[in-house]
Amino acid sequence: MEQSIKRIDASFSVTGQIEQSDLQSLAALGFASVICNRPDHEGGPEQPEHTAMQQAAQALGLSFAYLPVATSGATPGQVQQLRELLDELPKPVLAYCRTGNRSAKLFEAATQGTREARQYDVVVVGGGSAGISVSASLLKRNPALRIAVIEPSTEHYYQPAWTLVGGGAYDIKNTVRPTVAVMPKGAVWVKASLCAFAPQRKVVLLSDGSELGYQQLIVCPGLELAWENIEGLEETLGKNGVTSNYRHDLAPYTWELVRSLKGGKALFTQPGMPIKCAGAPQKAMYLACDHWRKRGALDAIKVEFNLAGAVLFGVPAFVPPLMKYVEAYKAQLAFQSNLVKVDGPARTAWFDVTDAKGGVTCVAKTFDLLHVVPPQQAPDVIRRSELADKAGWFETDPATLQHPRYPEIFALGDVCNTPNAKTAAATRKQVVVVAENLLALRKGVTLPKRYDGYGSCPLTVENGKVILAEFGYGGKLLPTFPLDPTVPRKSAWLLKATLLPWFYWQGMLKGREWFTDCKPD
Question: How many angstroms separate the CA atoms of 223 and 373, rounded?
Fold first, then answer.
């Protein structure tokens, strides 16, 4: 319950639909009042009526108010009603509707003009790879810019190396640094979470109750890993042979499992697209198989790769060389097989398997090692925003990386709905497009840069060799070097394991833009 509560300021929070059983937890969390903004019967008979909720709340000593708001939005009268309630009700207050979105917007309207926003030239949402890099690039071009970077985390990660950690080829300690150490000089670090957008007013609302005003906004908070969408998974991660290279604390456990496994069954999974680094799920399998082969254990281990999709890799040119490794490792491919449930102590996983006619069957499979890649989605604050597309991703022009309805807003990185691979390499080229276009917009001139969809996926097919897959929109091959990109190479391994991590910390995050030209048709 506590995880779903969004704090707007010190005295007001929002959440989605709650039940009577949640009220005791809310009282224990210190809330003094509850406001229901969801009309009765909106969600059918399962939705508790406000009268029952009010009685249960008052029995626990909570104040309760019913202020129903239609999905079409609040009326001026309802905005005034909330102002009056905020004056009357004991604090802190929790308001709820179906998702929390209406409650947040109603609060924004009721408090508009009562809070003074700190003003910046550019506000950057997210201090990950995209946010730090684009801030550094902007300041390199114009050190006078007033830039604020919104980032709640005190640690910054180099995530592309986690696959290597899981394969025993990289030290996990070298993948993390303090956020303060990578924040560009000249940028203001705002250590808070984003709660809501108010694009008409050109402000964003933060978890500490403050607002930031902007002339231009850059949205790059990354994506969310939806572990909770697989039944039983969160309870068993990091034990019972269940692991994932998609989490910093779990990648070392992957290597622990790989090097200790002498026989049995190893399952690797890949959810439906889009996901962060689409090649990473199979890279975990290749490095594990390479280790088992070199230790003479591969023949005793049954390896199976379960993919929710129907193809091994989205760019056809790379499928034949990858299939050679699949066959060499004697791995079985299970297409259209999507992980839906895990029982760690029983060492059993369940998959929804779709047949050629579209029928779905739930199939149980036992395992000794299970490497899970979770479903992935845009952050909640993006999904419930008017700036998102129908699928919940941030709506972005695929060439200019502008929002189509708010030209002062740009986006880059994993949160975008652009049809490119969600990789750090894609971000590296997007940074230049956003920086150049944003500064051109500030000058009132034509936007000069176009993003070609470039992304790179260094496919670690064995310890010491990589297929360097580089491609753009439509699967067009965009190799940086004049070599056959489908051939596994030791030089590409050196690039992946040594040069790229150094370049990330010393180049990309510092605004150095080597090999970043985009070449659209």
Answer: 14
- What ranges in 23-100 are assigned the alpha helix state H? 23-28, 50-59, 76-88
d(CA 471, CA 520): 12
Check whether 155 has a pLDDT greater than 60. Answer: yes
Domains annotated on the chain, with CATH: 2-111 (3.90.190.10), 120-223+378-452 (3.50.50.60), 227-374 (3.50.50.60)
The two three-digit tokens of residue 128, written as one number = 């990950």
Q: Which of 105-109, 136-140, 353-357, 488-492 has the lowest mean pLDDT?
A: 105-109
Output the pLDDT for position 7. 79
Exposed/middle/buried for residue 88 (C-beta within 10 Å: 0-12, 13-18, 19+): exposed
**Separation between Cα atoms, residue 165 and residue 485, nearest integer Å:** 24
Q: What is the CA radius of gyration of the chain?
A: 25
Whether 457 is a known active-site residue: answer: yes
**Rounded to an integer, what distance in angstroms lies between the CA atom of residue 509 and that of residue 128?**
10
pLDDT at 520: 43
CA dist., res. 442 & res. 145, Å (int):
11
Mean pLDDT (the chain, rounded): 94
| 194, burial (CB in 10 Å: exposed 0-12, middle 13-18, buried 19+) | buried
Q: What is the per-residue DSSP string for 185-214? A: TTEEEE-S-EEEEETTTTEEEETTS-EEEE
Catalytic position from the list 97, 220, 416, 457: 457
Whole-angstrom distance, CA of residue 163 vs CA of residue 244: 9
Biggest CA-to-CA distance, the chain: 74
Catalytic-labelled residue, pool 36, 97, 277, 289: 277
For the question of residue 277 being annotated catalytic, the response is yes
The mean pLDDT of 151-173, rounded to a whole number, is: 97
- Residue 407 has a CB neighbour count (10 Å cut-off) of 14
Rounded-to-integer distance, Cα 23 and Cα 12, Å: 16
Q: How far apart are the first and last CA of the chain?
A: 50
Q: How much is the average pLDDT of 259-264?
A: 97
For residue 84, CA distances in Å to 6, 10, 79, 216 come to 22, 18, 9, 34
Distance CA 134, CA 99 (A): 32
Strands 211-219 and 118-125: parallel
Name the DSSP class of 382: H
Query: pLDDT tens for residues 368-408?
Result: 999 999 999 999 999 988 999 999 999 999 999 999 999 99
- The predicted model scores a pTM of 0.81
User: pLDDT value at position 521?
Assistant: 41
| Predicted confidence (pLDDT) per residue in 89-133, tens digit | 999 999 999 999 899 889 988 887 666 678 999 999 999 999 999
Neighbours of 376 (CB within 10 A): 20
Mean pLDDT of 284-291: 98
**Token digits of residue 52:** 């029952």
